[in-house]
Amino acid sequence: MPERGAFISDETLQASMAKKGPKQYTLWVDLEYCVGCSACTMACKAENNTPVGVDYNRVVEIEVGEFKDPKEKPEVRVYFVPMPCMH
Amino acid sequence: MNTEIKRRTFLKISAAAVAAAAVVSNFKDAEAAEWKKQIGKSGSQPDPVDEEVKIVRSVCLMCHGGCGIQAKVVNGELARLTGNPYHPNTYDYTAKGDIVEESDLDAGPAGKDVGSLCPKGQAGVYALYSPFRLQHPLKRVGPRGSGKWKTISWEQAIKEICHGGYLFKNLPGEENRKVEGLKSIVNNNDPIGKEDSDYLDEAPPGGYGPKRNQFVWAHGRNEQSPLTPRFVNESIGVPNMLNHCSRCAGTFYNVVEDVLNLPPYEIGAYCDYEYCDYLISLGSNITQADYPMQTRARYLQKFGKRVGPYAREFKHVVVDPRFSNGAAKATHSGAGEWVPIKPTTDAYFLLGMIRWIIENNGYKKEYLSLPNERAAKKKGYRNWTDMTYLVSTKEPKTYLAGKEAGLGQSDFVVLVNGKPKMFQEVDGSADLDAAVVINGAEYKTVFRMLKERAQEVTLGEGEAVCDIPSGTIARIAKEFSSAKHPVIEMFRGPVQQTNGYWNGQALCIVNILVDNVDRKGGFTPGHAAYKGDVKGNLRKAGGVSVCRHKSKYQGKNATATRPWYPLARRTVTPEFFGSVRMGYPYKIKAYLNYYNNPVFTMPHNATVIDALLDLKAMPLTFSIDAYMGETSALCDYVLPDTEYLERLGGFKTYPPVKTRVWALRQPVVGSFDPKSHNYRAIRPDTKMADDMLIDIAKECGLPGFGKDGGGPGININNSWDYWNEYYKHYDFKEGLDPKSSFVKLGGKFENPAPSKQYTNAYSSGDYVTFPGGRPVRALYVYQQSTALNKNSMTGKYFDGLPQYRTIIDCKEQPLDPAIWKEYPFQLHTWKDAFHTQSRTMNNLWLASIKPQNYAEINPLDAGRLGVKTGDWVKAKSPSSRHIHLYHNSMGDGWYKFQVRVTSRIRPGLFSICQSYARFGAGARKWYANGKEQPHDERVGAGFHINPLYMTDPVLKNVIMIDPVGGGTQSNGTPIRLERL
Question: What does CATH list as the number for B270-362+458-516?
Answer without folding.
Answer: 3.40.228.10
